[in-house]
Amino acid sequence: MRADVLITGGGIVGLATALRILERFPGLKVTVLEKEGGVARHQTGHNSGVIHSGIYYKPGSYKAQLCRRGYAEMVAFCRANDLPHDICGKIIVALTEAELPQLETLRQRAEANGLKGVSVVERGDIARYEPHAGGLKALHVPETGIVDYVKVSEKMAERIRALGGEIILSRRVESLRTLPDAKVARAGEADYEASFFINCGGLMSDRVARLDGVDTGVSIVPFRGEYYDLDPASRGLVKNLIYPVPDPAFPFLGVHFTRMIGGGVECGPNAVLAFKREGYRKSDVNLKDTAEVFANPGFRKLALRHWRMGLGEFHRSFSKAAFVKALQRLLPDVREPMLTPAGSGVRAQALRRDGSLVDDFAFADGPRSLHVLNAPSPAATASLAIGGEIADRYAKSTGK
Ligand SMILES: Cc1cc2nc3c(=O)[nH]c(=O)nc-3n(C[C@H](O)[C@H](O)[C@H](O)COP(=O)(O)OP(=O)(O)OC[C@H]3O[C@@H](n4cnc5c(N)ncnc54)[C@H](O)[C@@H]3O)c2cc1C
After folding, report:
1. Which residue numbers in the chain have pLDDT < 70?
2. Under a CB-based contact definition with an 8 Å cutoff, are residues 338 and 331 in contact?
3. Residue 23 belongs to what domain range?
4. What local confidence, expressed as pLDDT, does residue 211 receive?
């Protein structure tokens, strides 16, 4: 069962990595091991479905570069494979005077990151884009789009198989060994040997890195994001996507309205500390996951710094009225009876020991291995470019 490259994780990052490596090095034997019975069962299958334009990210960062490149590659992939998507644009709305400088920062980032067509929308003109939105001033971002990342992942899986790659489902990598000329992963009572190992384990990526003996200095803290659906009769309140100005202290974008490619409008997600890494209900608790979070000195520092924000998120999680109040800041006409609880997703957010959240995408080398340590939003948008970046690093590490 020897492969050239063994990838853990059949989420969009693992799949895009397999695809880009197979395209770059035809004939290489690439195997993806996924612990679930299908691809895209975790973050990739529980997200907002937005093709992000790249407006938010610090110029020069991996997020800025890979989101811009990945945006173009994702749109091209959808076009080439007839996947439904819509470049419908969005508005980002400043709701208070205090948010205006941050809106201006975003405009400057749009310019620095090479976005096309971003325009400032004065208060009286917001209704031209979103007739029911509130706000003092906005940015219109025409490049933003929507897609179904599960469909994208399934198509990537199909392409991987067509290029001779293998995706083995229901195989959890439980241990890793490094031999002088190989890497051996134990999964589902079988050994999988390869020359090189790549960890795209998402919410479990820190644990997979630990299996490889790599001290990454970061651990994953799971943040659940909960959604409501706007009832069909009220969907006319939202034309496309309406976002607030995000708080620069956090890597989350704030609750927003997103028209979905399959129909419907999603409202959310919030960002609540999750007591289970892959738990999608409020009642889901995993003792190991919870104990790990609270025993983490980095988390305790983070909690001390941001407890007020954290409590607010818990309040909004348990009180629909509080959630609706947050949404009404963007869309004053929205009312509680218009909303029904929808799904949720859990974000894998890497945290350093000093309590700071890792903002950028992050990678680490191991022995005959590479670990993706932080791939939160916009990693679905950027996935094909992240895959390209990993293919470059693989080539460099192995002298190909
Ligand atoms: C609520 C929410 C909204 C988001 N909205 C957007 C958006 O609109 N646009 C955007 O671009 N991004 C968005 N994101 C971010 C995006 O979904 C993620 O960045 C992206 O899906 C990460 O992909 P991944 O492959 O790294 O992780 P995942 O999709 O989580 O995949 C990791 C895979 O690894 C597998 N795995 C883990 N451990 C093992 C093991 N030991 N053995 C075998 N398999 C293993 C898991 O089962 C899983 O399938 C959002 C995320 C969330 C949670």
Report:
1. 1
2. no
3. 1-84+146-217+358-400
4. 97
pLDDT value at position 307?
A: 81
Asked whether 168 lines ligand 1 (CB < 6 A), one says no
Q: Are residues 229 and 200 in the same domain?
A: no
Helix residue ranges, H only, 81-148: 100-112, 126-129
242 in Cβ contact with 329 (< 8 Å) = no
pTM above 0.90, yes or no: yes
Which pLDDT value is given to residue 1?
61
Same domain, 72 and 177: yes
224, β-bridge pairs: 272, 346
Query: Are residues 161 and 269 located together in one domain of the fold?
Result: no
User: Of 316, 333, 352, which residue is a domain's last?
Assistant: 352
Residue-level pLDDT at 52: 98
**Domain check: are 396 and 305 in the same one?**
no
Spatial distance between the Cα atoms of 361 and 57, rounded to a whole number of angstroms: 11
Element (H, E) at 2: strand 2-8
Of 109, 142, 175, the domain-final residue: 142
- C-beta of residue 39 within 8 angstroms of C-beta of residue 200: no
**In contact, 200 and 14? CB cutoff 8 Å:** yes
How far is it, in rounded angstroms, from Cα 85 to Cα 9?
Answer: 25
For residues 320 and 300, give the distance between their C-alpha atoms in angstroms, rounded to a whole number: 28
Cβ atoms of residues 88 and 107 within 8 Å: no
CATH number of domain containing 276: 3.30.9
Q: Which atom of ligand 1 is nearest to the CA of 14?
A: 25
Q: Are residues 266 and 320 in the same domain?
A: yes
- For residue 204 and ligand 1, the question of a CB distance below 6 A is answered with yes
Residue 379 Cα to ligand 1 midpoint, Å, equals: 8
